[in-house]
Amino acid sequence: MTEIREIKLRVIFNSFGEETIEAIINDKFFASSSGGISKSSFEAKIISPDKAIKNFNKIKNKFLGDFSQKEFDSLLKKYENKLGSILTTSLSLAFFVMEFDYKYEKRYFPKLLVNVLGGGKHSFVNGPEIQEFLVIPKGRTIREIIKKAIDIWNDVKEELKEKNALFGLNPETAWLSNISNEEALELVSKIAKRYNSSVGIDFAASSIYKNGRYVYRNKELSREEQIDYVLKISKDFKLRYIEDPLCELDGKGFKELKRRTNSLICGDDIIATNYERLKRFKDSINAVIIKPNQAGTVTECLEIINFSRKNGIISVVSHRSTKTSCTSEAKLSLLADAAKFSVTGIDSARCNELLRIWDEVKNPKIREII
């Protein structure tokens, strides 16, 4: 049990200049909620920060006293319709930060999945429809992994410059280009190979799914054709990881892909960090994205991490496209198998937090599950 003596809330701004909430517990423990450009229809309810804080102040005294994380989050869930996920996530993460140093074992560090080239809804140019081209560096230390990812990120920039196809950065500090999916996969795969790193992608397929078809710049694919396309690029580019290859409603399609490819099939929009949905679709995926604000509380994230470990599903704590410099997600990732963070821009705060924790613990190790 941990005592909450004081709670303060303030409206702050995220990396897109949008309002979010920072929660401060006992004048010491801070956390804030990220948000997303590409969203699942199953995410927790959002309420404007000003309205959420006004509603919270009416019931604030209920949240003072001695709590466990589960008890505190249960109370937040009781009032989630009045508070919204921005507020509940910020408060739940602040409580988690308060307990982190003395409650959680920190020996094992997540494998990193790093977005180095972007497309889809994260792009403002006519580039790849696939939303994220990811690298999964190998290394004995978290510093080695982060540095290798930064080197790959820089090499991607230089090769795009040589092609006269570099158009800046997207909200997750992945490079933007007008090249095709296949050209992007060829470029990232070639560079990743130099660094003995694996490659993955996030299709974010719900974003290109319209009227029963998957819409690309020069073609439209049926469900069956999309499955064949995913299988082809998985084989051609030896993809280790494929996230949201189909729309969020196609659990059977996810299951078919999982059966027919050696790539990890990861669910984000289809699960939306929802424990009940994970139990429903556990046979359709072998990796799952965890975004605290999709659920609204840390307890739900921990339930998913524990359930996944028992069922052979790899848990991946993920940043979002609109975020703050809050490092609570880095701490949460130490309880999971992997983390999907950028290594530059505002996400450098999360990576630097992993470096600090690595230096503080005895005999730290990287999880080698991916």
What fraction, in percent, of the residue positions are helical? 25-40%
Which secondary-structure class do the elements indicate?
alpha/beta
CATH class of the largest domain: Alpha Beta
By DSSP, the count of extended strands is 19
Mean pLDDT: 94
Strand residue percentage: 15-25%
Please name the CATH topology of the largest domain. TIM Barrel
Largest sheet properties:
8 strands, mixed, barrel
For the record, what is the CATH homologous superfamily label of the largest domain? Enolase-like C-terminal domain
Tally of helical segments:
12
Any idea what the radius of gyration is? 20 Å
- The spatial strand order of the largest sheet comes to 7-8-10-14-15-16-17-18
**What would the principal axes of the Cα set say about the shape?**
globular
So, CATH architecture of the largest domain? Alpha-Beta Barrel
**Count of individual domains:** 2
Provide key terms for this protein.
single chain, 370 residues, Enolase-like, domain 1, TIM Barrel, 2 domains, 12 helices, 19 strands
